[in-house]
Amino acid sequence: MWHWRFIAVVGIFFSVAVNAAPVGLIKIDGAIGPATASYIARALDVAAAQHDECLIIQLDTPGGLVDSASKIVQSFYAAKIPTVVYVSPAPARAGSAGVFITMAADFAVMAPHTRIGAAHPVELGASGGVEKTDDVMKQKMENDTASFAQSIAEKRHRNVDWAKSAVLESASITAEDALDKNVIDFIADDQADLLKQLDGREISGKTLNTAKATVAEIPMNSFEHFSQLFLRPEVMFILMLMVIYGIMGELSSPGAILPGVVGAIALILVLYMSAILPVNVTGLVLIGLAVILFLADVFSPTHGVLTTGGVIAFFLGAMMLFSQAEPGFGLSLFWILPATIFTAAFFIFVVGKGIRAQFKPAQTGTGTMIGKTVNALSRIDSQGGRVFIEGEIWNATSETPAEAGQPVEITGIAGLTLKVKPKN
Residue 358 domain-assigned? Predict the structure, then answer.
């Protein structure tokens, strides 16, 4: 009888295993960037290798880099398993780049009271206001982004007109309106409801079996966590300050070594990050100009005029340093104002005093005697003589003889003998 019981147990286990299909899950909370694109691409590979029914991407983002969103869309298109983007929990949003990611999924789902939209590309100028000077470039950017949204909507059979309006008119709608307008597939109250509604749906010839699915989250690995924290405008800005402070500190205190090493390492990291993050060249130029003005004021008696110009150039450069066409990748005044004040103080009180000290005449030691005038204690000629200076009697020589009591000027020092000349 034992073998029948064994067969029954195996049958029950097999039945449970069949019904409990695995489902992968990742959570994206924050701006879309290179780390996000890398994380999603890897999660898709992991989920496919585990033979998951699908991969759920729980999304809450204000937006991010369009380039990163484009890579995520490409990953969705090439995925070997169905993709589900779930905008949750309330009041989560899929803003800007999140619109493209949501609409590109095989199944676009939102929780009640969430929102999607506002994918219009916005370029901010130096003052923080919308830049309107280059209408041609603005139109090109809008048309390109609108075409990107349209291509996604057409491929996934979603509302093309709304997709374009999200870009061209900054349209933003709630989950309920998104369902009515065929922007998403359905609304799910929670994860359990999501799995229930996904069950039985067909995509690319595959019918999903998720009603009793076990959900396993695929976490970020160490490199992705590091990239997410490291590849940020704020980090690059701090590294740029380290470059400036390190190199200037080395110049003001030659031989310190450590500031120069730190500055050089920070410079390499800045160059690497500038190829990934949306850096504005104009901002870099203005910050470079600020450094030049700060240094120039050290050597020029401008009564702070150049320093004032440097402060203004640095502030504007920091404002323009990162292209703010996408939310989540611009510097706030919380970073810019303290950095501007600290940098100005650094150049005025540290670099300025350090460089000036290198050009000041010696204040102590034998070098301070050169140029001073004293009276000869005895006759001084090329063979020798004596002078009294700073409480000591020194041997002295002079090419032009000087008599005792005659004023002589010290012109040099050779060992323990002073070189002097008669002073008229």
Answer: no
Pick the closest to residue 128 from 340, 281, 287, 333 (CA basis).
Answer: 333
Is 140 in the same domain as 189?
Answer: yes
Q: How far apart are CA 150 and CA 163, in angstroms?
A: 6
Under 8 Å CB-to-CB from 270, ≥6 apart: which residues? 236, 239, 240, 243
Sheet with 373-375: list strands edge to edge.
373-375, 407-414, 417-422, 392-397, 386-389
Does 286 lie in the same domain as 372?
Answer: no
Are 197 and 111 within 8 A, CB to CB? Answer: no
Contacts 24+ apart (CB under 8 A), 395-402: 396/420, 398/422, 402/376
Q: Classify strands 22-29 and 407-414 as parallel, antiparallel or unpaired.
A: unpaired
Q: 233-259, pLDDT tens digit by residue? A: 888 888 888 888 887 777 666 666 787
Q: For the residues 14-18, what does the mean pLDDT come to? A: 42
Segment 98-132, tens digit of pLDDT: 999 999 999 999 999 999 998 776 543 333 333 44
Domain that holds residue 26: 2-225
Number of domains present in the structure of the chain: 3
Instruction: Determine contact, residues 161/135, Cβ cutoff 8 Å.
Output: no
Per the CB < 8 A criterion, the answer to whether 411 and 420 are in contact is yes
Is residue 122 domain-shared with residue 57, that is, in the same domain? Answer: yes
Is 359 inside any structural domain? no
DSSP conformational letter for 131: P
Per-residue pLDDT tens over the stretch 242-301: 888 887 777 666 666 787 788 888 888 888 777 667 777 888 888 888 888 877 776 676
Q: What is the DSSP letter of 23?
A: E
pLDDT at 6 over 70: no
**Residue (of 86, 110, 35, 103) closest to 65 by Cα position:** 35
pTM for the model: 0.66
What pLDDT, in 10s, does the model give residues 206-217? 899 998 889 999
Residue whose tokens read 């799995």: 195
Dihedrals phi, psi of 58, to nearest 5 degrees: -80, 120
CA dihedral 281, 282, 286, 287 (to 10 degrees): -30
pLDDT of the residue at 134: 54
Question: Are residues 159 and 25 both part of a single domain?
Answer: yes
In a domain, 301, yes or no: yes
**Residue 304, pLDDT above cutoff 90:** no
C-alpha–C-alpha distance, residues 238 and 25, integer Å:
34
Distance CA 376, CA 393 (A): 10
